[in-house]
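Recap quiz, item 2
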Amino acid sequence: DADVTQTPRNRITKTGKRIMLECSQTKGHDRMYWYRQDPGLGLRLIYYSFDVKDINKGEISDGYSVSRQAQAKFSLSLESAIPNQTALYFCATSDLLSPSTDTQYFGPGTRLTVL
Amino acid sequence: GENVEQHPSTLSVQEGDSAVIKCTYSDSASNYFPWYKQELGKRPQLIIDIRSNVGEKKDQRIAVTLNKTAKHFSLHITETQPEDSAVYFCAAVAYNQGAQKLVFGQGTRLTINP
């Protein structure tokens, strides 16, 4: 889905470095999410934002921070990267149509390696 | 909070046979259950979903069933084809302080053997 983009697509960095992953969307959705994917662990929620002034921690927020710069932009930062943060990171958006549906549209993913 | 368990973690079937992936959830308040498919190197995409007011939903070769009493739901793929090979994720909506978000299962890697 080209409406949700992520930069960079691949990044190799060293322990202790600060890293920022960026997500942009043209779908006009209010809700944005950051997930981490590890083999055998599925998609785990790091942070989510329901509008520009709203930021919420997910199940694995330790070591991460986020910034919602605008409706269309949601950035994830690793202040001091460590090797166990090596993973595939996905941004997603959704537009709550009703209280019981929440289709999420994912970006292409960022593969991050921390050496 | 919500916990979603998905089984099996890997599944291999012969082309043309059926495949079934099962998930259980813990929060009885959950009322929306989507399934996502992730092809190799691609992003997850929604393939089918079901709401708690129905027990079954079909879309061509895929179907999802829901048993609210037992708190489990399943994905059924019939007449499997090579393009069905992918990782499949189930999910359930979780409610926390008035906000809702999805909790995903661990994923099932489905391989269709020709």
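DSSP finds no helices and eleven strands in chain A.
The mean pLDDT of chain A is 92.
End of item.
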